[in-house]
């Protein structure tokens, strides 16, 4: 898994220096690549002071087919007026899509079972969200989804325990 992580970081670093920055990173984790594509995307945005991480889910019959069941999930603190309170809420985050920086997203093509595991994690976070704090935030939801599909993102775990600042992920991914 360490080699996989090094490969991902290298791709993002090289991509920031070359024309690869505009390409979408897709990693196919399926054993049978002829089946329908079930996609779990992990992304960050860079248009806010702290940054933000979110999850994208969709299905696709083949490369030319439209995306089906397209959903974007973000984890936020609830607010009273404009004041955030430490109660978490999962929201439709489709507005974030236009704020993804180059190399700020990666997509894992998984089999149907893994896709529904990821979806179950998001449904659990939606139905029973944990308290939103500086230590438990949008990065944790992203990490939880990644682990559900068998992807270990070690920097996220280290990052959450160290600084809990989503902007750090953006700097790491660039």
Structure description:
The protein has 174 residues and is an alpha+beta fold. It has one domain (24-168). It has 5 helices and 6 strands. It has helices spanning 2-17, 112-127, 138-148, 154-162, 166-173; strands at residues 25-28, 37-45, 52-60, 68-80, 83-92, 105-110. The chain has a 6-stranded mixed sheet with strand order 1-6-2-3-4-5. A hairpin with a 7-residue loop joins strand 3 (52-60) and strand 4 (68-80). Helix 2 (112-127) runs antiparallel to helix 3 (138-148). The longest helix is centred in the first third of the chain and has 16 residues, at 2-17. The radius of gyration is 16 Å and the shape is globular.
Q: What attributes does this structure have?
A:
disordered N terminus; 174 residues; six-stranded mixed β-sheet; 34% helix; 6 strands; 29% strand; globular
Radius of gyration: 16 Å
**Overall geometric form:** globular
How many β-strand runs? 6
- Report the span from N to C terminus: 21 Å
| Helix fraction bin | 25-40%
Structural class: alpha+beta
Task: Spell out the helices and strands N to C.
Answer: HEEEEEEHHHH
Low-confidence stretches: 1-21, 156-167
Largest sheet: 6 strands, mixed
Give the percentage of residues in beta strands. Answer: 25-35%
Number of domains: 1
Give a brief outline of the structure:
The protein has helices at residues 2-17, 112-127, 138-148, 154-162, 166-173, and strands at 25-28, 37-45, 52-60, 68-80, 83-92, 105-110. With 174 residues, it is an alpha+beta fold. It has a 6-stranded mixed β-sheet with strand order 1-6-2-3-4-5.
């Amino acid at each position: 898994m360490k080699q996989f992580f090094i490969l991902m970081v290298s791709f993002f670093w090289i991509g920031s220096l070359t024309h690869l920055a505009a390409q979408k990173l897709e990693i196919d984790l399926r054993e049978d690549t002829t089946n329908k594509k079930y996609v779990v995307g992990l992304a960050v945005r860079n248009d806010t002071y702290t940054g933000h991480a979110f999850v994208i889910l969709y299905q696709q019959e083949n490369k030319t087919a439209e995306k089906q069941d397209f959903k974007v999930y973000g984890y936020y603190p609830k607010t009273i007026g404009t004041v955030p309170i430490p109660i978490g809420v999962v929201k439709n985050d489709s507005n974030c899509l236009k704020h993804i920086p180059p190399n700020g997203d990666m997509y894992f093509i998984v089999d149907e079972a893994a896709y529904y595991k990821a979806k179950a994690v998001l449904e659990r976070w939606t139905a029973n969200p944990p308290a939103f704090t500086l230590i438990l935030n949008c990065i944790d939801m992203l990490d939880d989804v990644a682990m559900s599909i068998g992807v270990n993102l070690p920097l996220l775990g280290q990052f959450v325990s160290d600084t809990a600042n989503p902007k750090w992920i953006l700097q790491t991914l660039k």
